[in-house]
Amino acid sequence: MNSSTPAGVYANGNDNKKFKGDRPPCSPSRVLHLRKIPSDVTEAEVISLGLPFGKVTNLLMLKGKSQAFLEMASEEAAVTMVNYYTPVTPHLRSQPIFIQYSNHRELKTDNLPNQARAQAALQAVSAVQSGSLALPGAPTNEGTVLPGQSPVLRIIIENLFYPVTLEVLHQIFSKFGTVLKIITFTKNNQFQALLQYADPLNAQYAKMALDGQNIYNACCTLRIDFSKLTSLNVKYNNDKSRDFTRLDLPTGDGHPSLEPPMAAAFGAPGIISSPYAGAAGFAPAIGFPQATGLSVPAVPGALGPLTITSSAVTGRMAIPGASGIPGNSVLLVTNLNPDLITPHGLFILFGVYGDVHRVKIMFNKKENALVQMADANQAQLAMNHLSGQRLYGKVLRATLSKHQAVQLPREGQEDQGLTKDFSNSPLHRFKKPGSKNFQNIFPPSATLHLSNIPPSVTMDDLKNLFTEAGCSVKAFKFFQKDRKMALIQLGSVEEAIQALIELHNHDLGENHHLRVSFSKSTI
Fold first, then answer.
1. In terms of CB atoms within 10 Å, which end of the chain has fewer, N or C?
2. CATH number at residue 214
């Protein structure tokens, strides 16, 4: 019997011919016939093929025949879907699926057995699409989402030849529902993200549609699993994490980066020679054209072109008043005290706001220096917090430099030790991705937070240490719960800045080096 006319389905307005073998192509219909479907595929997975193109109104699975019928709300949506999947074969469970128009004009499945699961899946999808989602904890249609399934996905990106920004992830995953929160991080040298949807169903569809897909041609492969977490706690809105429901959150460990350092690689020839003029010479590969008649280049293993705006690709976000080279990680620091400043002093002070890689005090003008941070984000953060602060009697100024890097002196070049490379320093505070230090970045203050204090060191020992460094100690207290930490209040912010430079990493004995940070608290 012809696969397009299953028993019990009424073909409205159709003479219900039974073709043998391959049938001639039908005229467009909102009912689509899918072949070669793996036997273990779920209703939700089949529906996910149609979701990006419009509302799916009915589904009939013929499991024994590895076939299915999918009814779209409009013929226009079905045409877009067929046009889209003709050059880019869709896959379910890594198997290619073949789609063509059915000779039915609609599906009537009311009196068919085994339709409960299909109807439950359809109801769940329409709830997601219309926004009338049941509140968490309310009873939902059984058989749609596995009990206890999380709305949070863990995403690993393999073959990361191009930077993938939080904006790019948001754009891709928003196709499957409302994205509430995203956190990105690096773990085991892999770029990963946690992404929370409004509902576990959205997470399920996104996982089915996107797992194993490439974001760009032949690279940036998505590996997606459900997270054990059921909710994400986002503290800061910046280029590493974002809570889309809380626009009032601070930027925390930095302003949105002006441009990731890897953006330079976009135009680099020879990484991927792409025949498509995508953003900056490579063709993005995921995305669902919502309009009809989009011509899609045949990109093997990709989902078709993702309409990523170039600003999302480079992650650019304008910060008002930022001059110099946006995205530059080198700061020009001026109005320093030439008699007292050292490369090490600048390394310790700027190291409160990021990892300092190199410092150069100008040979001919020692009140000026260049400080190279690990990235543009950290440079911006250090500039915002330190410019205008007093250090050794002078008001320090910091701006973005026109230099892209600090050059080390050539061998034999007279330098007087004014240029130092700290890129391998053990004192970097932010080397570990997701380090607690990211959450404890505060502006310079007269109260310092001390940690890593050994048990034998007393309050008087610490007060004396700061007094000998030329500070007036106004107050001191150990943390009640943890005697390894304390707060010390000094006479002024300038004193505290100078004390931090002098005493951070001071050897307290017993293999303990004092850690000093600015505190948000007062005593």
1. N
2. 3.30.70.330
